[in-house]
From TrEMBL:
<dbReference type="InterPro" id="IPR024344">
    <property type="entry name" value="MDMPI_metal-binding"/>
</dbReference>
<dbReference type="InterPro" id="IPR017517">
    <property type="entry name" value="Maleyloyr_isom"/>
</dbReference>
<dbReference type="InterPro" id="IPR017519">
    <property type="entry name" value="CHP03085"/>
</dbReference>
<feature type="domain" description="Mycothiol-dependent maleylpyruvate isomerase metal-binding">
    <location>
        <begin position="4"/>
        <end position="135"/>
    </location>
</feature>
<dbReference type="Pfam" id="PF11716">
    <property type="entry name" value="MDMPI_N"/>
</dbReference>
<dbReference type="GO" id="GO:0046872">
    <property type="term" value="F:metal ion binding"/>
</dbReference>
<dbReference type="InterPro" id="IPR034660">
    <property type="entry name" value="DinB/YfiT-like"/>
</dbReference>
<protein>
    <submittedName>
        <fullName>TIGR03085 family protein</fullName>
    </submittedName>
</protein>
Amino acid sequence: MNHARAERAALCDLLDRLGPDAPTLCEGWDTADLAAHLVLREHRPDAAGGIAIKPLAGYTAAVQRRLKERGFAELVAQVRQGPPRFSPYGLLPGLDAAANTLEFFVHHEDVRRAEPGWRPRELPADLQELFWRRLSAGARLLLRRSPVGVVLRHPDGRKIGGRRAEPHVIVTGEPAELLLFVFGRQDHAEVSFEGDPAAVERLRGASLGL
């Protein structure tokens, strides 16, 4: 089982356990909203554009609301089954792992870390390295709205330039924690900061991610 499938299965197990009304880190969404989003993303390509393109967001939100009306158990079962066989995810080898590893990891943590008493998981070394590679490729995009410069630093000292500006802040953490940080989960990522305190506060409160 690849990491995308493992995160998908673990998230679905957690959703089944918590039910439709549990909180998530996605502003305004409970677990039922999140399950509907995941179904929409894989099964309704006609409506998925609004996830990233603001002019299409109204249609996407309307479709997501209709999906939510199907019932939580059905939605989670559909997410658990994986993408449709004849979707791009099913037809193109490797696309599921490439596109869904980060998606399901972040949303799994969106549910885990909205619960009291959460702690970071011990993740496989190869998954942490995958996250580091993805950060190397995407940090500038994900940090484009940062009001200050950002450097991401691995605990072993490796660095990624996320945004060039002054003042700048160095954010240090395991790749999984840095990933959550740049995807806009700053308050729930276990990272440390070096830099001017005012710049750190501006970064912590910024709207980051896609």
